[in-house]
Amino acid sequence: MGLSNGESSRFASAASISDVPVEDRYFLLIEAVQDYAIFMLDTHGQVASWNPGAQRIKGYTADEIIGRHFSAFYTPEDIAAGKPDRELHVATTEGRVEDEGWRLRRDGSRFWANVVISAVHNASGTLLGFAKVTRDLTGRMRLEELERANAVSTQVQMARENEQKRIARELHDDLGQRLTALKMSVALLEADLDARSETQPLTSQTHELQMQIDWMTAALRRISADLRPPLLDDLGLAAALDWLAEDFTKRYRVQASVHLEPAEPEFSEFASTALFRIVQEALTNVARHANATRVRVEMTCMGPFLSLDIEDDGDGVELDRLPEKHSFGLLGIRERVRQLRGNVTFSSSPDNGFRVAIQVPVDALR
């Protein structure tokens, strides 16, 4: 609402707040508050005063709102349910009422508000009206929603990893053993066929069958390792990354190197899995899009932060015009880094390769 010329001149001679009359200090206090809407309602719920904080939060000027019923701040569904009148009734009978819910601004947009309505009485106990204080909690609510979403995302990721671990184990231990047993049976059959002259011509077919079983076994191991490399669980992150780089080099003929400092980092299972998946996703992007000949993975854990750099010598891209097929993989990297409370930057330009630089607080890895 601001101070009028008369009010300004009333306080102009004051050298300090202690020189201002006590009854005027409360007025100055309410006028100075910007983060809360503080205003009065008459006994019928009509707005009787308006502070600058109310104008900032709700969007009405004093001239636009004083004299109107405070239900203007409520959503249509709350009005239909009789919430404004009910809150005045509770404040009248119990002295105050507090509520959190959606409220409306002048432009019709919604915000999440904490509202306290207190009954105001004179010395004889007669109800004079109500004091209403509103705080905009939209930012806090959205932060809480984001934190809940992050927690759910992390739980989903952990459940997914556990399921992949289970499937990989079953493929490796169950189906892998069955293929091994099948190959042994075929080998025994081949020896039996080779022992008799009339069936010797069939041995070439059984030999071919054994080769197909070998190919199936190799494919099964590759699929199982892609789902969840057993080295990650059995020997730790360093061994898993070494295997990943070696497998990547063999599969795509792109020279991959890994350097860790310290050589055997000790992180939680969740952190080790996340870091492994980050490197795996980055290498997948290199194989699909970079046209590179070399890729370097360097992880350093010194002081309060872990640094992870993944850099290739490929074609590079214009980051502001990153293709969707490329950015999808980077989105997965961002999500995993976020789950570790870290930050990630991407740097690249045409013909200058691509670099992923990650920093994660060490206390998020324990």
Structural class: alpha+beta
CATH architecture of the largest domain: 2-Layer Sandwich
Summed up, the helix count is 12
Spans of at least 5 consecutive residues whose pLDDT stays below 50 are: none
Overall outline: elongated
Helix-strand string: HHEHHHHEEEHHHHEHEEHEE
Major beta sheet summary = 5 strands, mixed
Percentage beta strand:
15-25%
What's the overall average pLDDT, rounded?
87
CA-to-CA gap between the ends? 53 Å
Number of strands: 9
Radius of gyration: 35 Å
The neighbouring-strand order within the major sheet is 5-6-7-9-8
CATH class of the largest domain: Alpha Beta
Helix content: 40-55%
CATH topology of the largest domain: Heat Shock Protein 90
What is the domain tally? 3
CATH superfamily annotation of the largest domain: Histidine kinase-like ATPase, C-terminal domain
Protein traits:
single chain, 366 residues, alpha+beta, Beta-Lactamase, Heat Shock Protein 90, five-stranded mixed beta sheet, four-stranded antiparallel beta sheet
